[in-house]
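User: Okay, second chain of the day. Same drill as before: sequence in, structure tokens out.
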Amino acid sequence: MSDPRLASYALSLGDDALVLGHRLSQWSSRAPTLEEDIALSNLALDLIGQARLFYTLAGEVEGNGHNEDHYAYFREPEAFRNILLVELPNGDFAHTMVRQLLYAAFVHPYFQALARSVHGGLSDIAAKAVKEMAYHVRHSAEWVIRLGDGTDESRRRTIAAFEALWPYVDELFESDADEHVLIEAGIAPDREALRATWENVIDRVLGEAQLKRPDAGGLVQGGGRTGHHVHLAEMLAGMQSLARAHPGAVW
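Assistant: Same drill. Structure tokens below.
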């Protein structure tokens, strides 16, 4: 029996992972060092692997025969439920590392909580992804500290990245009415309950980087969960082009 709430929830988790994974993959051959080029590619692969699992689960729950390729390549931008933070263009290296830290510092404890879900499929995916996201937090934190407490130029760019990205973080903690039903049922964790955990990680990193929390000035950006995207269409045009040009192709 299909469960639209659960399918939508799985899609939102998959969309976050796929979109950010693709953004990170755009650094391949462009990272500041060869070692970091490989590291960013591995981070991207972790996220895309998570997306595949969530998409497969969504297809099983919907019961309509859709697979991971359908969800990734044959949906229009307004059908994607990812938060806006993950779809933002990469910017410079500091921007990418700050975005990765803001995302991973939330998703790591979120997956720890999701691993205790009463839904076996979700808990299995989360249990695997927890280890991956622990590394994502560590890797991005090390870079943010290094850049923030580095040269005048790296510090300036890191501060600018936090200021630009801070208005997007509240969307990490938002849950709609359907997700609240899943929270009450013990299927999904309460996002807002993890805010203090996330803040502790971010504040620790900011302290070691000799930086302060940015002031968003009351500006909050959101709407990604309901299909209102700004930068996604251009990204999807490139990402989906081959699959749409040759539908059903295998290699």
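The chain has a mean pLDDT of 95.

User: Thanks, on to the next one.
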